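Hello,

Our lab assistant flagged a job as stuck in the queue for most of the afternoon. It eventually completed. Since we weren't sure the result was trustworthy after the delay, we are filing this so someone can double-check. Below is the sequence as submitted and the structure that was eventually returned. Let us know if re-running is recommended.
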Amino acid sequence: MSKKAIGFMDSGVGGLTVAKLAIQELQNENIAYLGDEARLPYGEKSKEEIQQYSLQIANFLIKKEDIKMLVIACNTATSYALSYLQDNLLIPVIGVVNPGSIAAVNNTKTNRVGLIATNGTVKSGAYEKEIKKINNDVEVFSQGCPRFVPMVENQEFKDSKTQIVVDNDLSTINKDDVDTLILGCTHFPIMRDLIQKSVGDNVKLIDPGHETVKQIKKILQDNHIENNEVSKPTYSFYTTGNPDNFNKVANEWLNFEVHAKHLSIKELEEL
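-- returned structure --
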């Protein structure tokens, strides 16, 4: 048993979609979350930069919150930094690409799977590689949607004009006749209704967060570090960006009041 927190990291608020599922499913577990909004978007950064940022965030959460495991709740960071962090940290580290790939392969009936993600995730080829490992017969159609992340971060996803943008950006993937679509960026489930409307009800949307939480559960059990003590869990939130902006999205998405603490890039770089 361990009362230590599970750490979550993302480039911004998107990882809250994974953290929310973890909060719902792992009700005894303490959560510590860091959104690196000051250096967003990760999808346009180099592999070396993402690895550096991810290690800084991990070191902060280990030092400040004494986390027992780390969830990279960011597809781009998972694509470029998962194995790097696993090699450099002493705690279990899990990403979202493998869980998302498993869910997609299990759901497709036609073996035609679509992926929408940041340009960085698409460029990495991480999902294609992972899906081919699971089932080599599945064909993957990938498309970068770089405009979606700032829409979520700036809370523009509720604007009536946003559907036009989403329809335009998904026009290519809509021609690929996929029956399953991976929301390959943790920001995208916040825009789920807009995306579903664009691709149609016949396309199954895959949120990697659901399968990720299953893997978190297994890692906790396998390492005997789950918190079995029934007590009110604690939730800590940090952002390198504007806490007020972070809190607005977090409050609405998590359905409780969030008071994120600001963390400067300088503090991270000094770790």
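-- support follow-up --
The delay was a queue issue, not a problem with the job. The result is valid. The first strand starts at residue 6 and ends at 10. The longest helix spans residues 47-65.
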